[in-house]
Design goal:
Blueprint: E1 3-4, E2 28-32, H1 45-52, E3 54-61, E4 66-68, E5 76-82, E6 84-90, E7 96-103, E8 107-108, E9 121-124, E10 128-134, H2 135-144, H3 146-172, H4 175-192, E11 199-201, H5 206-213, H6 217-229, E12 233-236, E13 239-242, H7 245-251
Parallel strand pairs: 1-3
Antiparallel strand pairs: 2-3, 3-10, 4-9, 5-8, 5-10, 6-7, 6-9, 11-13, 12-13
Helix pairs in contact: 2-3, 4-7, 5-6
Length: 257
């Protein structure tokens, strides 16, 4: 018999946009756990069945709204069912520092594990849906399902590796290497989800990309134009087609796995 978790939206959650009750879609609703959900992908057999016996809540977050804010109490991990989010840190003079982009199938919120509060703010880059996984429930299940515990550790290690890769990218590469590397990484992530690795729709703005890569907006726009002139890309506003992945690889001066 399935266990039902009825999760209410976090009390005191701050949203940038005020919405009337009729307009608001920022709601939680219980649904069955599907197999494409983060944390379940590597489970098999009885372990997968036990994980799928739990009902988690899903939540729709409108474009531009906050899922959680830096400083909010940590309570849940989030698996993206559909859509895209950016995470950011508050910067000086009101400027944010973008720390990551997350898309369908990604697990995020892991930054809150260390200090019992989220360290970053998560904002929807389009209308998105997430599964809300209370951390207390996940840790209790992990004690009974060793493979889930291994999966959770793998996700933590992947997040640490991602943070290290970003630090190395910002510390030792040129502007054109950063932009080329960003596009190739996005291409690989799309391929890993069964999507086209060459036709990309960028949910984030050029300013977001610049903040993430430590570059000015003008620099990102200029490099997109240069790559297009060199025949590496075809750019149409938010739509980017990678015409020459090998050429982009040569830009960053190393092979891309």
């Amino acid at each position: 018999m399935a266990t039902i978790l009825s999760i209410r939206p976090q009390v005191g959650l701050r949203l940038q946009k005020a919405a009337t009750p009729a307009e608001s879609r920022d709601v939680a609703r219980p649904i069955y756990t599907p197999r494409e959900m983060a944390l379940s992908a590597s489970l098999r057999g009885e372990d997968l069945e036990r994980f799928e016996s739990v009902k988690f809540a899903s939540r729709v977050v409108r474009h531009g709204d906050h899922l959680f804010n830096a400083g909010d109490k940590f309570s849940c991990l989030y698996s993206i069912r559909g859509g895209c989010f950016k995470t950011s840190l508050p910067g000086s003079q009101g400027r944010e520092q973008v720390t990551g982009f997350f898309m369908s199938g990604d697990l995020f919120g892991l930054d809150g594990l260390g200090g019992a509060r989220y360290n970053v703010t998560a904002v929807a880059l389009e209308d998105s849906t997430v599964w809300m996984m209370p951390y207390a429930v996940i840790t209790a299940m992990a004690q009974e399902i060793p493979s889930l515990q291994c999966t959770l550790r793998s996700e933590l290690a992947r997040e640490a590796a991602r943070s290290y890769a970003v630090m190395m990218l910002l510390g030792s590469t040129s502007a054109q290497e950063r932009v080329a590397g960003f596009l190739l990484d996005l291409s690989r992530r799309h391929l890993g989800r069964g999507l086209s690795g060459s036709s990309l729709r960028l949910r984030m703005t050029r300013a977001d990309i610049g903040s993430y890569l430590g570059l000015r907006l003008e620099t990102v726009s200029r490099l997109f134009s240069r790559f297009q002139a060199e025949g590496l890309l075809r750019v149409d506003n938010k739509f980017v087609e990678i015409l020459d992945a090998e050429g982009l690889t040569q830009v960053i001066g190393r092979s891309v796995n």
